[in-house]
Recover the amino acids of this structure.
């Protein structure tokens, strides 16, 4: 009620509480390069639109008189108690959005006890982000490089810096056809921001003829050439299992059979995601893929979800469709762009407050009681 009470006393929030309006405001304020980077998606954007439509199409059927006066948003994910079914999704090169970049987002997450998933393509080295987070829960996202030494080096650095969960992104063996990126001069754009996590990595630097400061073009091209690997197959996961002690989560799983493969390969979780519609144009909406994956492996793996989450009721719907928790993507990036750490804090607060109210008003005191019976398909 904090936000309502502030409103009564004439204080309005500095940023919109409606995260779609916040997105519009950020797009209005940012230049075409940064807007294109965040808002852009694959092809004509149909997958990103489908992600929203699939969530909007499902409607909650609220229940009454269920004693919701005391509520608890906490859940357990991968054996970890989390204060809410929420983590911040990995988003690369955040210095495009704000000079304080990843450490600002990570500090905001840490203050709420929400796990921060640090991207491999971070504009801040792993160690510096860890330092900004104290002993808060942190997960590391791996772009699984062609170069074994770079992969090994990233895993070692992340482990040493206290990252506990490894999130391996499978849906980006190559960058997709993203017109808004292709239509701008990408190489100079990437120079300006750097992907400092690679550019400070000893194994990455060993592959360069000259340091990135002397030949930034060559460094960026080297990065684009090795950051992912279209040649990987399921048996390759054994390498990661061998080099990572904690839970491993595969991000970008949409087919129930791939989820079963993940379970058979000894993985601990999956993120049902289509990368926010940035990889396969025309792909199945993430929310449409979620129930099938949850049915296939929900009893063996932690099933997480992202792609299209903008509101508390979206989180509720994802839980009802079988997710344990969701990853929040673009909204926190817009919060960061508009106001740094307080902007991300604002976004997390709004989302959690709205989730709390949605749960209560729908007759639930905890996320654990939400299920398929809480939703119907919009009859249109
Ligand atoms: C991403 N995403 C992403 N995923 C990942 O595994 N590593 C990364 O470095 C990035 N980088 C990235 C940059 C930007 C600008 C965006 C918008 C997204 C995907 C991200 O983790 C998540 O899957 C999507 O953002 C979810 O979609 P919505 O909810 O943001 O639309």
């Amino acid at each position: 009620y904090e936000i309502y009470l502030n409103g009564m006393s004439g204080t309005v929030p500095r940023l919109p509480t409606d995260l779609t309006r916040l997105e519009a405001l950020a797009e209005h304020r940012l230049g075409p390069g940064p807007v294109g980077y965040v808002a852009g998606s694959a092809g004509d954007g149909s997958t990103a639109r489908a992600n929203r439509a699939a969530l909007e199409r499902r409607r909650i059927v609220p229940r009454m008189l269920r004693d919701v006066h005391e509520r608890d948003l906490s859940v357990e994910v991968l054996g970890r108690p989390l204060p809410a079914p929420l983590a911040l999704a990995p988003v690369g090169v955040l210095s495009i959005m704000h000079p304080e970049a990843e450490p600002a987002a990570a500090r905001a997450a840490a203050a709420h006890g929400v796990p921060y998933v640090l991207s491999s393509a971070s504009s801040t080295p792993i160690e510096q982000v860890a330092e900004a987070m104290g002993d808060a829960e942190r997960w590391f996202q791996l772009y699984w490089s062609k170069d074994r030494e770079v992969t090994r080096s990233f895993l070692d650095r992340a482990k040493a810096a206290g990252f506990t969960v490894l999130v391996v992104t499978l849906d980006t063996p190559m960058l997709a056809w993203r017109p808004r990126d292709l239509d701008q001069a990408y190489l100079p754009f990437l120079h300006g921001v750097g992907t400092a996590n690679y550019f400070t990595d000893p194994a990455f630097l060993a592959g360069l003829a000259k340091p990135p400061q002397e030949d930034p073009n060559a460094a960026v091209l080297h990065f684009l050439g090795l950051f992912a690997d279209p040649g990987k197959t399921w048996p390759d996961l054994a390498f990661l299992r061998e080099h990572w002690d904690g839970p491993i989560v595969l991000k970008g799983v949409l087919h129930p059979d791939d989820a079963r493969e993940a379970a058979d390969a000894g993985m601990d979780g999956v993120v049902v995601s289509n990368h926010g519609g940035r990889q396969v144009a025309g792909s199945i909406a993430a929310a449409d893929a979620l129930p099938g994956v949850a049915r296939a492996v929900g009893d063996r793996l932690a099933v997480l979800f992202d792609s299209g989450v903008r509101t508390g009721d979206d989180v509720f719907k994802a839980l009802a469709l079988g997710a344990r928790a969701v990853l929040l993507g673009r909204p926190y990036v817009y919060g960061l762009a508009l106001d740094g750490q307080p902007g991300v804090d604002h976004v997390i607060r709004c989302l959690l407050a709205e989730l709390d109210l949605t749960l209560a008003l729908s007759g639930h005191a905890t996320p654990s009681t939400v299920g398929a019976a809480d939703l119907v398909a919009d009859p249109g």
